[in-house]
Amino acid sequence: MNAALTEKMYRAFPYLYRGRTKPQDESAMCYGFECGDGWYQILYDLSQELTGHMLLHPFLDLELMQVKSKFGTLRFHLNYSDSSTEEIISRARRRADLVCEVNSKTKHASDPLKYKGEKLK
Fold first, then answer.
1. DSSP one-letter string for 6-21
2. How high is the pLDDT of residue 119?
């Protein structure tokens, strides 16, 4: 994700992304968001939902450990998860499966080989 969107996310959710300043042996967020700009809105909505979940459940001390794309699939790793956070993340992954990671355009079911906005060869 580009630097401007990354910084926007950090400003909006500083507590959730507090690992960004930790060394790599403590958090992979030191690498930033390892995915394309097309998933920004999905990640923003996911972060907002997780933050709201933490407010309702103060015993949860969620911290993002890594956000990346692996084989065109959203990977979102927390320091802790429960069934509710797993469901929140699962919904975001399903949304990301339908949206191009690069340009945020909707992928079409008629073209199942779409990956990062291009057909696989």
1. HHHHHHH-TTTTGGGG
2. 43
